[in-house]
Amino acid sequence: MKNHWSHWSLRLFVIFLGMTVFPGCGSNIPLSGKIIYEDGTPLKTGMLNFASETTLSRAKIQPDGSYVVGTSKEKDGLPEGKYKVYITGAEEAVEPKNAPVKYDSMGTPVTVMGRYRQLVNRKYLTADKTPLVCDVPAPKNRFDITIEKPDYLK
User: Fold this and answer.
1) Residue 132 and residue 16: Cα distance in Å, rounded?
2) Backbone angles phi, psi at 48, to 5 degrees
3) Which residue of 39, 65, 85, 137 shows the fewest CB atoms closer than 10 Å?
4) DSSP SS3 for 124
């Protein structure tokens, strides 16, 4: 009988240890939203990256500007915490191939990798410069984003 209780005590201790040392593990919180420009038109392409001290979660931007965040797999949410939000892959092709290069208000060429141009301002391109911050859980599990258009898209 003594072995029976000590065996259960060990199991309870392991469960307790798991709950206190690794709180929230495996319990992602759903998060979705929409990203639009100030004029109300959606950003139609790219990836939103949610970076915390320990986690990088991503969301593919849909043509209507909507997105759903995923961490381990697509659309599975993300752990509770504070995240810097930055945008990658928001580019469009510049046609024709020899189109003249335009410059933004800071003198930066808007063409990227030859025939593509960024659809967002540079400040949104990296975690260290982005002004976008999301606290998870967010109200109603939504985080809607409004950004200004780069000068060359206005």
Assistant:
1) 37
2) -95, 135
3) 39
4) helix
Tell me the residue type at 62.
Q
Note the CATH number of domain 27-153: 2.60.40
Cβ contact 46:88 at 8 Å: yes
pLDDT tens for 119-138 read 999 999 999 999 999 999 99
Q: Are 127 and 86 in contact (CB under 8 A)?
A: yes
pTM listed for this prediction: 0.71
Contact 75, 60 (CB under 8 A): no
Number of residues in the chain? 154
The pLDDT tens digits for 40-90 are 999 999 999 999 999 999 999 999 999 999 998 888 999 999 999 999 988
**For the chain, what are the domain ranges?**
27-153
Region at 27 (left for phi over 0; alpha for psi -120 to 50; beta for the rest): beta
| Structure-token match 């909507």, residue found | 66
